[in-house]
Amino acid sequence: MRWLVLLCFFGLTLASRQAFAQGNDLLGPAGGRAALMGNTGVALGRDGAAALYNPATIVRVQDTHLAFSAHFFSFSLTSFSNWHAPAAPDADQFGSRTLGNTNLTNSTFHLPPSTVCLFLTLEDLAKLSSLNEYQDSPAELEARQKLAICFASLESEDLDLQAISFNGETRAGPTAQVQSLERHWSRTYVGPTYSVNVNENLALGASLQVVYSQTSFGVSGTTLSNTLDGGGAATTLTTSGRGRTFGLTGLVGATFRHRRYTFGVSARAPVFRISGSYEGAYERSLMGTSQDEEAIVASGSGPMYSSPPVRLAFGAGVALNRLTLEADAALSLPFQSILSTDLEVTQSRLTADGVERNQSSEHYGVKSHPTLNPSLGAEYRLSQGLSLLCGLSANFSSLGALHPTDSIGNLVQARTHHVNASVGMGSYWQDGELLFGLQFDYGWGQAVTLDPYALPNKFAVVDAQTYTLMFVLSGAANLKSILRTVNKIAGSEEAAPDKKK
Is CATH 3.40.1440.10 the right assignment for the domain spanning 2-500? Predict the structure, then answer.
């Protein structure tokens, strides 16, 4: 019974989704405290983000704690500039542009994913039950070893726009568009983390993580238009793909404490690729115009490779009487391809003589570049059990400018840079803690769409802006307290039949 309750608790904390752009390393909320302190934690982390930011910091987590970041609620407003007409219409076919408002706006409510970690102390377990949450003294960091088992779902994107319609006018006459857009991306880390205090000042840690990446997308549109020659045109453009990869990576870290100051450093290794597969499709057609009509269908499959970048993180924190400050910087180095595939492609083209088929081997990859992401966080203790938290951070996309092509190989459909600010409150007691607050995020970048006023249709790039307000509710509970509660529930159920007798 007790393990069934614990399993249900884990299941509830993992049942959530979020929308974050691909190409932003560790953008999702990895821990409640980290999120409210500007996504810091390389030096002073002590929640579920520790296993991802710096494994050496898990020795700071209070013993027998089940740390969770289970509830994040966010509302996002996304605007795409000139979505329905990303470029000027072809003047030879449609004349001058009189289309009106061609922007697209979408609002969504999300339940973002979270990090769940079970922290266990391997020795001196009993000593820590009397620790004061705010005593940042060497006595708190007596030599001990800690183990954590963590599940983290980050860097996810979940966008689903169906029944996008637009009716406009050109000099040639009326036009009608229908489009649909889907983008789904997720990267999940699962594995153990180990840390040990070498002495009262130095802690070392390491994580071994299985990395699972999954992507799927679909972009399609059909346009009916009048043309200047007195006729009309019907054109369709569609591309879609799906893939998944498994890999193995490691993370090592260290923290060094000198009086009130703590310094942290961590490094994530390149990914050892285990397996991966990808399937893609592409379709384009043009009918009813003085130009040559065409119909092309292409499909392909092959292995896929997707790796988070090598990550070097540095942090420094200071604990004053009531104020705790931390500043971090994370350098992402894309030594491996963010996303690439080698496809065996079959292309079929409709001709006057029937279907003409060609086969080829093609490689597609996503270019990326190094990024440096800063973060700053603060916590001010209002009383022994209450504190105020705030932070600022940035997460710049490692993807280069988008250059879509009319082929099966458009693996990435958006890139976004992010800056955010957060504020919240923390409440602490002997058996746990509760944190809640708000994080506001602004994102800007590019997205791939269709250009319906080119014959045949082609892919184009538009500007995109995103505004997100996320509510954070997070905490940590003492595992012994949870088990005591479970025992009481189990005991009351056993006593109930006796009362009836």
Answer: no
